[in-house]
Design goal:
alpha/beta, globular, FAD/NAD(P)-binding domain, 3 domains, seven-stranded mixed β-sheet, 448 residues, five-stranded antiparallel β-sheet, 11 helices, 31% helix, 23% strand
Length: 448
């Protein structure tokens, strides 16, 4: 018999933790997982899944309007926030149940409570129970970062936004990243007056400059207001329940809600990691090697808590690689090159590989190809909104090293195109592919 209660104890039942638990158990390991919030983690409970459902709901605002140009006699429609909110939360409940069933079917023991480390191979639950495990996996994900300033307690984050009692007529969103721009598009389509406040001078750092400039242009055309170089000074709650936001270099703004979307930090606070010698970086992320092992040999970490690439599919791959390597006898290392990403803004963005600036810095000699066009649907609907596709090519090898897109269904198109970039295909390979007409995706094989 083992001297430990479990072969593996996982702290955090999000995407990475659940995948690692399930796969390790399938390899014969005795596995337990502790989750202090809800099974499913950020993505399922308070992230990409409920957010994408809100994105779908927001799209109907334009679809209903455009339908009239396509011959549909559509009556004036009224949006009901509480109906969508409750339906989305019900779907979250359903998915949480499925995640729980998955763990149960693999005979993973679930402790619905907080767990902290008290030793390299021992954890303590919130009720005081102590459990030993040969290996411990930290998969606690990330948590919204809220800057400290007077009145910050009056703001909400992406954790609370799905539970609003009513739709705010005016909303101020702090931040310039994907979360800020996604919720700006959502609230704007629902009819809220949206102002994005950014302490810097650009949105979507890390994305190609032409693509992010196009989103800024379209967002402003849709009525979203942007305030740049305007750090928060304070938030004042008024007697009528409204909020007054005081900013540097900008007039005060009155709003009904303030959403802080200034990034996410690794969720390591209070876990006891430092006490047992687990090394953290300056952001609080757990330092790990390619094998997901920390500075303490019995402790591993996967997902956003390591702050490598904060994407759900990456966390899942890391969880799978950990379980296969440690318990399955199949050493696996995750490849972080050419990981595709998306921003579910209005319109959405899809990207994979190097931006133009990155390619010039790294490769020197490159070629760029762009297609700037109106989607067929937008033409008939009378919308001037234009899509932009951009391909970055290594001039020396003809290899496609980057694809960047903004336009309807860009993430859906990009996923398949990312396979070509990952496989190292060339511009000639794209050119040799017959176009699928009429479609937006055909622009990728018609770039000149």
């Amino acid at each position: 018999m083992s001297e430990f209660d479990y072969d593996l104890f996982v702290i955090g039942a999000g995407s990475g933790g659940v995948r690692a638990s399930r796969i390790a158990a399938s390899h014969g390991a005795r596995v337990a997982v502790a989750e202090e919030h809800r099974v499913g983690g950020t993505c399922v409970i308070r992230g990409c899944v409920p957010k994408k459902l809100l994105v779908y709901g927001a799209h109907f605002a334009e679809d209903i309007h455009d339908a009239r140009k396509f011959g549909w006699e559509v009556a004036d429609c009224k949006f009901n926030w509480t109906v969508l909110r409750d339906n989305v939360l019900a779907e979250v409940d359903r998915l949480e149940g499925l995640y729980g069933q998955t763990l149960d079917s693999h005979k993973v023991t679930v402790f619905k409570t907080r767990a902290t480390l008290i030793g390299p191979q021992k954890v303590r639950l919130a009720d005081g129970q102590e459990i030993s495990a040969e290996r411990i996996l930290i998969a606690t994900g990330g948590w919204p970062f809220v800057p400290e300033f007077p009145g910050s307690e009056h703001a909400i984050t992406s954790n609370e936004v799905f539970h609003l009692d009513k739709l705010p007529k005016r909303v101020v969103i702090a931040g310039g990243g994907y979360i800020a721009n996604e919720f700006a598009g959502i609230f704007n389509e629902f009819g809220s007056k949206v102002t994005i406040v950014n302490r810097g001078d650009t949105i979507l750092r890390g994305y190609d400059e032409q693509i992010r400039d196009r989103l800024l242009q379209i967002s402003m055309t849709k009525g979203i207001d942007f305030k740049f170089n305007a750090p928060f000074q304070s938030i004042e709650k008024n007697d009528d329940g409204t909020l007054t936001v005081h900013l540097e270099n900008c007039d005060a703004i009155t709003a009904d809600a303030v959403l802080i979307a200034t990034g996410r930090t690794p969720n390591t606070k209070g876990l006891g990691l430092e006490d047992i010698g687990v090394e953290l970086d300056e952001h609080g992320a757990i330092k790990v090697g390619d094998d997901n092992q920390s500075s303490v040999p019995s402790i591993y970490a996967v997902g956003d808590v390591t702050n490598r690439i904060q994407l759900t599919p990456v966390a899942i791959r890391e969880g799978q690689a950990f379980a296969d390597s440690v318990f399955g006898g199949k050493p696996t290392v995750v490849d972080y090159k050419n990981v595709p990403s998306a921003v579910f803004s209005h319109p959405p963005i899809g990207a994979v590989g190097m931006t133009e600036a990155e390619a010039r810095n790294k490769l020197g000699s490159i070629r760029t190809y762009t297609s700037d066009f109106r989607a067929m649907k937008n033409v008939l609907a009378g919308r001037n909104e234009r899509a932009l596709y951009k391909m970055i090519v290594n001039a020396a090898t003809d290899q496609v090293v980057g694809l960047h897109m903004i336009g309807p269904d860009a993430p859906e198109i990009l996923q398949a195109a990312a396979i070509a970039v990952k496989a190292g295909l060339t511009k000639a390979d794209f050119d040799a592919t017959v176009a699928l007409h009429p479609s937006m995706a055909e622009e990728l094989v018609l770039l000149k």
